[in-house]
Design brief:
The structure is a single chain. With 121 residues, this protein is mostly helical. 50% of the residues lie in helices and 0% in strands. It has a domain of 50 residues. The protein is built from 4 helices and no strands.
Length: 121
Amino acid sequence: MKNATIALALAAAFSTSAFAATDVPTPNTRAEVVAELQQARAHGDVQRGELTRFKAPSGPSLSRAEVLTDLRDARAAHQLPQTTLDYPPKAVGETTVPSRAQVVQELQAARANGELDGIGY
């Protein structure tokens, strides 16, 4: 019992000296944290909310009239979706659903090629 107590005391003494020897960084002061935040805001590195904020383009920009003209031209050429259900926009004249005749033709070709053998058709 006495040996266990001595061993425990020695272990505690050596472990505290080992922890005391490690370098613990000092926390930043409030002024340092505020300065870092202001610098990050100035560089656009701070994100607010769930959406990432983007910096405004720094190059030459279009006037409001030019943007509206481009918008009208794109709408006239059917390059924009008409509703949110049309996103992403489809090219003019593009059909995504085959006609009934195309489906029947593909079915007959598959039957003739034996592609449907063994699946009950």
